[in-house]
């Protein structure tokens, strides 16, 4: 609104100065803004620009995930820091925004979740908005969570394996398994010396190795989609990719859900009030997922 006002303000002033508009009206009847009001509007637009850009960014994203919140909040807090060279109205606006942003995401659980999500994003893994101690703590927590997730998977696989092993009676009734012949002469000769079997490493060591490799890799451009990046690199980082799925499924805003409600309102009109709930669900699904060239 402020941008549109400043854009149209010269045309409005020129219109108000037209004799046809002023005809039959007194000077006091024309409500105009003075130069101070226009200057204040310019300061307002300039002070609110970071908030406008952040809102547009997070609303236009096709899949805005929770990893965007921590870096955006830190950047907005930095952008709204007062400067003595700025006007008083600009300082007041920035102070109000900064105080409001500082009150958000203050609990330990919220901070840990947002920082871990940003650490798993290949665009923000440097975490420049955090101190070195906070960065080390964040990645230490990522290692622990990835190791816990892998340990849980190993326990489940072990339980499944134990449940499918044959009992002693089945072993006695079944014929002995044939001994597998060596696949090649090379394996027969050098198999004992150069065994392909490796000692299994712990889940924590594997998670720590993946995190170190992930942090050492070059950062990706901000324009790249982190979900597509993880889809391409999940073989290289199997533990972190599983942990990333847990975080990146959290939406950053409710914009996408609100758009679904708006789409439902366009579909279920007064002329189509007899649509069944099943057909409404199908139409919504097609509208959101069917991309026609």
Polypeptide structure, described:
The chain has helices spanning 2-16, 19-22, 35-60, 69-79, 88-102, 108-119, 132-164, 168-173, 185-190, 203-216, 226-233, 238-248, 255-267, 277-289. It is an all-alpha fold and 293 residues long. Helix 3 (35-60) runs parallel beside helix 5 (88-102), helix 7 crosses helix 10 (203-216) and helix 13 packs across helix 14 (277-289). The two termini are 35 Å apart. The mean pLDDT is 83.
Determine the mean pLDDT.
83
As a percent range, the share of strand residues is under 5%
Q: Cα-atom Rg, whole angstroms?
A: 31 Å
Shape: elongated
**Distance from first to last alpha carbon:** 35 Å
Order of helices and strands: HHHHHHHHHHHHHH
Number of strands: 0
Secondary structure class reads mainly alpha
Fraction of helical residues: 55-70%
State the low-pLDDT regions, or none: none
Largest sheet geometry: none
How many H/I helical runs?
Answer: 14
SSE arrangement:
Layout: H1 2-16, H2 19-22, H3 35-60, H4 69-79, H5 88-102, H6 108-119, H7 132-164, H8 168-173, H9 185-190, H10 203-216, H11 226-233, H12 238-248, H13 255-267, H14 277-289
Helix pairs in contact: 1-3, 3-5, 4-5, 6-7, 7-10, 7-12, 11-12, 13-14
């Amino acid at each position: 609104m402020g941008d549109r006002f400043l854009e149209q303000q010269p045309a409005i002033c020129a219109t108000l100065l037209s004799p046809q508009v002023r005809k039959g009206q007194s000077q006091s009847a024309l409500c105009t803004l003075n130069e101070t009001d226009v200057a204040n509007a310019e300061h307002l637009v300039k002070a609110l620009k970071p908030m406008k850009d952040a809102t547009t960014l997070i609303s236009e994203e096709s899949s805005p995930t929770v990893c965007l919140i921590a870096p955006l909040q830190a950047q907005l807090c930095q952008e709204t820091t007062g400067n003595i060279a700025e006007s008083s109205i600009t300082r007041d606006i920035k102070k109000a925004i900064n105080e409001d942003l500082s009150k958000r995401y203050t609990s330990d659980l919220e901070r840990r979740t947002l920082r871990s999500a940003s650490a798993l994003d290949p665009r923000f893994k440097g975490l420049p908005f955090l101190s070195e101690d906070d960065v080390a703590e964040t990645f230490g927590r990522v290692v622990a969570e990835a190791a816990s997730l892998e340990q849980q998977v190993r326990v489940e696989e072990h339980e499944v394996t134990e449940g499918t092993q044959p009992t002693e009676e089945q072993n006695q009734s079944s014929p002995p398994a044939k001994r597998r012949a060596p696949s090649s002469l090379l394996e027969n000769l050098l198999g004992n010396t150069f065994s392909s079997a490796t000692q299994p490493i712990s889940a924590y060591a594997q998670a720590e190795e993946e995190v170190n490799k992930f942090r050492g890799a070059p950062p990706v451009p901000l324009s790249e989609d982190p979900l597509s990046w993880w889809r391409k690199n999940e073989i290289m980082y199997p533990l972190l990719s599983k942990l990333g799925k847990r975080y990146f499924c959290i939406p950053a805003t409710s914009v996408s859900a609100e758009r679904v409600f708006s789409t439902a309102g366009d579909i279920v009109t007064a002329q189509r009030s007899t649509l069944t709930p099943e057909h409404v669900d199908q139409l919504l699904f097609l509208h959101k997922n069917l991309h026609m060239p």
